[in-house]
Amino acid sequence: MSEELLNKVRRILLYIAFLLAAFLLSYFLAYPLGYSPLGYEVVKKEENSVVVQSLNTWGIEEKRVTYQPPEGDEWRAKALVDRIHAQAMEYHLFFTAIMVAIFWVGMDVLKGKPLGKVLVLSCFYVFFSGLSLIQHLGGIKEILEGSIY
């Protein structure tokens, strides 16, 4: 093997190792630790109501909301609980995107690319997962406020 080919293989293996590490670290943040800034938690689930805990920017309890769906729409309480449980996946993708963006910024800066250009391009890594997370949390908030009928 030539030295150039060996360096490419090492670089690819480094990228794969970092992607796996970012994926695993964000998994532990989102699932076992349950870190969800500006997210929601189900505190108590009853037959016709759900008590939801909103979280602040640091993932600490902020306020409790009791959601009682309108008569005939009891399925909304189950849909709310399902959406709240699914937010961990959205956070997992978001945290992974942030870590990958940080990695690529570091790699590109080390290669000698200008920091401003690199930061602008790295924002695109986070943009789509952040947009998906915002839409998901907005859907939960709309259900809690009762504006979806």
UniProtKB/TrEMBL annotation:
UniProt name for this protein: Uncharacterized protein
Keywords: Membrane, Transmembrane, Transmembrane helix
Domain of life: Bacteria
Transmembrane intervals: 12-30, 88-106, 118-137
Organism: Halobacillus faecis
Keyword Membrane among UniProt keywords: yes
